[in-house]
């Protein structure tokens, strides 16, 4: 008897959720493999007990804890995957994607691959006919972003019928040294997540199509001011349309 339709398979990612005190949830991400064990604060759960189960089942660990098993969403994955630098968080990525108005088939430039979080969301947004150019200056970040992207695609291929697009080109190079390459591409949108993004603007601007959006991800308002000062000083053809801070509030509702 084979596994049930939609069941977990060896090699794919699984997310285990355990309710803790004060109604908080602990999330554990694992890649399923026969012979491996999921270790949690609530006990052990062999992977072979997960493989073949349909997502949404509650399984019991060796210590009696109840774990809800499901396939991770992209948001779950980027929050739990291995990290080097601090990632762009899903709440911020969602805002940037909305502001850039990216469509399937678009070509988008990302500077600062980091751990690959933004690369994955861009990949999904532009789809199989689109293209993402992801530049990273650090070798360790470049390799980690590629690995996280590859692991997600491999798991997706096992657990889903449709293929995740292979549409991200990870490039180990300083964007400031890529002026010649930029002359050969037309970009629908640009997103800068790097130190001193103002230095990259003169390089990417000639490739950005008329009316295209350049989103810049910055940590504080001082960096925003420095960016705007550079745009004005260099008389770059950019207009600052919007500066936003994205907040995210979780609510816990307990019945009386």
From TrEMBL:
EC number: 2.1.1.220
PROSITE patterns per the UniProt record, alphabetical: SAM_TRM61
Catalysis performed (reactions): an adenosine in mRNA + S-adenosyl-L-methionine = an N(1)-methyladenosine in mRNA + S-adenosyl-L-homocysteine + H(+)
Swiss-Prot/TrEMBL GO biological process terms: tRNA methylation
Residue stretches making up the TR61B FKBP-like domain: 10-64
Entry keywords, A to Z: Methyltransferase, S-adenosyl-L-methionine, Transferase, tRNA processing
Database matches in PANTHER family: TRNA (ADENINE(58)-N(1))-METHYLTRANSFERASE, TRNA (ADENINE(58)-N(1))-METHYLTRANSFERASE, MITOCHONDRIAL
Stated name of the protein: tRNA (adenine(58)-N(1))-methyltransferase
Organism lineage: Eukaryota, Metazoa, Chordata, Craniata, Vertebrata
Protein encoded by which gene: Trmt61b
């Amino acid at each position: 008897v084979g596994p049930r339709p939609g069941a977990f398979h060896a090699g794919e990612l699984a997310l285990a959720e355990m309710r803790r005190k004060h109604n908080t949830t602990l999330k554990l991400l694992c890649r399923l493999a026969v012979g491996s064990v999921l270790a949690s604060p609530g006990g052990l759960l062999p992977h072979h007990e997960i493989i073949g189960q349909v997502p949404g089942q509650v399984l019991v660990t060796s210590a009696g804890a109840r774990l809800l098993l499901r396939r991770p969403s992209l948001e779950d994955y980027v929050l739990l995957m291995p990290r080097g630098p601090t990632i762009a968080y899903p709440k911020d990525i969602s805002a940037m994607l909305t502001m850039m108005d990216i469509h399937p088939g678009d070509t988008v430039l990302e500077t600062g691959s980091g751990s690959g979080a933004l690369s994955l969301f861009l990949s999904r947004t532009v789809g199989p006919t689109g293209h993402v150019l992801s530049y990273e200056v650090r070798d360790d970040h470049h390799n980690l972003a590629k690995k996280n992207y590859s692991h997600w695609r491999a798991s997706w291929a096992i657990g889903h019928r449709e293929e995740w697009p292979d549409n991200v080109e990870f490039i180990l190079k300083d964007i400031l040294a890529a002026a010649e390459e930029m002359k050969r591409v037309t970009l629908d949108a640009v997103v800068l997540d790097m130190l001193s993004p103002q230095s990259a603007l003169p390089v990417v601007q000639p490739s950005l199509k008329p009316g295209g959006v350049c989103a810049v991800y910055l940590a504080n308002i001082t960096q925003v001011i420095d960016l705007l000062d550079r745009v004005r000083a260099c008389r770059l053809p950019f207009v600052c349309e919007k500066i936003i801070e994205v907040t995210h509030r979780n609510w816990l509702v307990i019945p009386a």
